[in-house]
Amino acid sequence: MKLLVATTNPGKLKEIKRILEPIGLEVVEPTENIEVEETGTTFLENAYLKANAYYDKFKLPTLADDSGLVVDALGGYPGVYSSRFHEIEFGGKEPIIGSRDETNIRKLLRLMKGREDRSARFVAFVVLYFNGKGFFAEGECKGTITESPRGQGGFGYDPIFKPEGFKKTMAELSPAEKDAVSHRGKALRNMSELLSKCKL
Amino acid sequence: MKLLVATTNPGKLKEIKRILEPIGLEVVEPTENIEVEETGTTFLENAYLKANAYYDKFKLPTLADDSGLVVDALGGYPGVYSSRFHEIEFGGKEPIIGSRDETNIRKLLRLMKGREDRSARFVAFVVLYFNGKGFFAEGECKGTITESPRGQGGFGYDPIFKPEGFKKTMAELSPAEKDAVSHRGKALRNMSELLSKCKL
């Protein structure tokens, strides 16, 4: 089956191909990006909205993901606002200095300053949508928020997230190590397991 | 496969059995009801929350649905608030006289009084969840809001909803006619089509 991926992010695309092509799926990229308003209050809903919008335009079964960091001491924030955390009201807006990722991290560390409970988890939902129906799969990676950023790999909050059982941050792990523990890796393997049982 | 249904509503249960048992699924009822807070802002999310909660408790693949009436002239309300429309702030709370259904209908007709655009649709999402993954299917039934209630069948807003192509309200249709056009009937058939292609 041909599968459209609702992303033009080369890193995500590579990860998705690596996990889904071995079960016989042909993963294709969209010829153009669509701006999808992520109005959902959950990862599942936002992944669904993205998959739905791309399916409507390209008429191909579409895979989309949404993911983020859920911090217990912040009542679940940044959550679905992970990628634009610096610009939302909660915790005060953060002036952009450096990249967006750096600004988001600075805001998160400011809000976590002096807190004892540093538990957090990365959560990912993957949705495959076509013609009024589809599949979904979730993945989670538990860990803690460090006091300061470490490591050059990955993206987003990886430099301040230490997965359970590791002494390194997500940004200090090798790509293979990250795939094995990451929320998106788990969600994609969950999806792959489900799809391998279906003849579409 | 054994399938738990996250409802103790006998009408829904019968409908679900009628559509899913022919494809070889064994549909079972929960031994007790779980109170699930429907905090989602969409039907998909609420169906997911219900399926997830029942799965966590009973450890069986669980099917849940969420549905409601979306009225264009009311900006999509009552939507996910359909069953408790009378008690929400939007449009003013409605004093309970008669049943909850009757009170909801009275509020809706009050808000629709004198409006020309009476277009609306019933929307249903069905989710089948197990162990971090699952299936979903949607169904829609387009129609219009009548000026006053008619018919004794069905439940909810059925007496004031006239499906496209019909002169009767949903509450005046026979059960078989309703199944054929209803949002839940369509969502369940979509789900059944998907499941019939999978070996779980």
Automatic annotation (TrEMBL), chains A, B:
SUPFAM superfamilies: ITPase-like. Its EC number is 3.6.1.66. Pyrophosphatase that catalyzes the hydrolysis of nucleoside triphosphates to their monophosphate derivatives, with a high preference for the non-canonical purine nucleotides XTP (xanthosine triphosphate), dITP (deoxyinosine triphosphate) and ITP. Seems to function as a house-cleaning enzyme that removes non-canonical purine nucleotides from the nucleotide pool, thus preventing their incorporation into DNA/RNA and avoiding chromosomal lesions. Homodimer. Binds 1 Mg(2+) ion per subunit. Its cofactor is Mg(2+). Belongs to the HAM1 NTPase family. This is dITP/XTP pyrophosphatase. Pfam families: Ham1p_like. GO terms for cellular component: cytosol. GO terms for molecular function: dITP diphosphatase activity; ITP diphosphatase activity; metal ion binding; nucleotide binding; ribonucleoside triphosphate phosphatase activity; XTP diphosphatase activity. The active site is at 66 (proton acceptor). The keyword Electron transport does not apply. The keyword Magnesium applies. Substrate binds at residues 7-12, 67, 155-158, 178, 183-184. It comes from Hydrogenivirga caldilitoris. It catalyses: ITP + H2O = IMP + diphosphate + H(+); dITP + H2O = dIMP + diphosphate + H(+); XTP + H2O = XMP + diphosphate + H(+). Mg(2+) binds at residues 37, 66. NCBIfam families: PRK14824.1, RdgB/HAM1 family non-canonical purine NTP pyrophosphatase. GO terms for biological process: nucleotide metabolic process; purine nucleoside triphosphate catabolic process. Keywords: Hydrolase, Magnesium, Metal-binding, Nucleotide metabolism, Nucleotide-binding.
